Structures are given as structure tokens and as C-alpha cells.
């Protein structure tokens, strides 16, 4: 089977990236990470890429005169790498509609809550878990979804519930949810590798 070519975009520590690398190395994911791109030159994600001999690319809006030039550069890097699937793993920057359209239904994101709740503007990192605690909900979780032009929107591919207990803090919840993200993301990517995902009318269908 041809391996699925991935390009991972990440801004932070990169534990989700690491989980993908580990699943590939363990033979559980039929994919190849062609490159890791980060807006943050000091990100743990780029370091993790380097230590696994994966091409690491620092690409920031700040390196370009206009947003359009940045978008064109990003698209050209994705094309050069023959990218089948763009994987957002803690990427903190908005992806422009120009890039999203080019990779329609071939770009996915992971979110540390159950969308469509606790998503959208300002809902990233610890802020998501703060909002979950403040709301008093008793379950949170993980969502993997296709990226469309609306932030944290797009067809949902996978969800997993994680209970919220009375003693939880935003930080404890983040620590509780993270391992479920690691477990989920590579499985969803493997479904793409197996050609089992079909997107129709804004819904994702998974063939058995
Ligand atoms: C994860 O919680 C992910 O859901 C969110 O950002 C965090 C990234 O963590 N989008 P890491 O950099 O993969 O450790």
C-alpha cells in the first residue's frame, strides 16, 4: 500500500506530532511525515522533527511582505512534498481560505474539547479547558475534524468523551485529555491512509 504523505503543522511542544511519529515507527500508521512546519522556530515540534530526521521548516508570516506571499509559499511547500493530508497539531495560526481551498477535505485538526462546544475564536490551549471548567459541564473530550473555512467547524471525523470531575482544574483536565488526543489522531489518519473517509454534505462518513 502506498504510504500517505503527511505534512504536520505545529506551534508548540509537539506531543501530538510525537504520537504520530511513534505510531509510524511502531508500524501502526501507513504514513510518512514529509515535513513539519512551524511558525515558531523554537518549538518543541521542530526539535522532535529534527531528532527523527524529518525535514523541519520554520515558516512565519513575519518572513513575508504580505499574507498572500506567505500563503503561496505554504502551498508550494505542501505541493513540493506531494502532501496527501495536512495535519494541524497544535498550530496556533489561522490557515487562510486560499490554502484551505487548495487542500479541501485533505486538512485535519485536533481540538481538545467536544465541538461544536468550546471552539472558535480564543479557544486554544489552556483557554479551552478553562471554559470547560467554568461552564460546569460534566464531560469534555477530543474532536478530530476536517478543516473548512470556519474556525473549529468542518466535518467531524472522531470524538471521544472524557469525564470532568469536581476536583479538576484547567491544567488537570488538559493532562487528562492529552493522552486521548494521542490515541485518537493517528487512528483517524490511518483511516485516511486506508481510503475509508468520505465527506458528503458537510458530514464525514467512515466506511467499515
Ligand atoms: C493539543 O491540546 C491540541 O488539541 C491543541 O493544541 C495542543 C497541542 O499540544 N490544538 P501538543 O503541542 O501536540 O503537545
Explain this structure to me?
Helix 1 links the parallel strand 1 and strand 2. Helix 1 packs parallel to helix 6. This protein is globular. A seven-stranded mixed sheet has the order 3-2-1-4-5-6-7, covered by helices on one side. The chain has one domain: Rossmann fold (3-Layer(aba) Sandwich), CATH 3.40.50. By secondary structure, it is α/β, with parallel strands linked by helices.
- Inertia-based shape: globular
What's the domain count?
Answer: 1
Task: Describe the strand arrangement of the main beta sheet, using strand numbers.
Answer: 3-2-1-4-5-6-7
Q: How many runs of DSSP E, i.e. beta strands?
A: 9
> How much beta, percentage-wise?
15-25%
Distance between the termini: 18 Å
The bound ligands are: 5-O-phosphono-beta-D-ribofuranosylamine
For the structure shown, list the relevant keywords.
binds 5-O-phosphono-beta-D-ribofuranosylamine; Rossmann fold; alpha/beta; 25% strand; two-stranded antiparallel sheet; 6 helices; 208 residues
Any chance you could write out the topology, listing elements then pairs?
Elements: E1 4-9, H1 15-25, E2 31-38, H2 44-51, E3 55-58, H3 67-80, E4 85-88, H4 97-102, E5 107-111, H5 126-135, E6 139-146, E7 156-163, H6 170-193, E8 197-200, E9 203-206
Parallel strand pairs: 1-2, 1-4, 2-3, 4-5
Antiparallel strand pairs: 5-6, 6-7, 8-9
Helix pairs in contact: 1-6, 5-6
Bound molecules: 5-O-phosphono-beta-D-ribofuranosylamine.
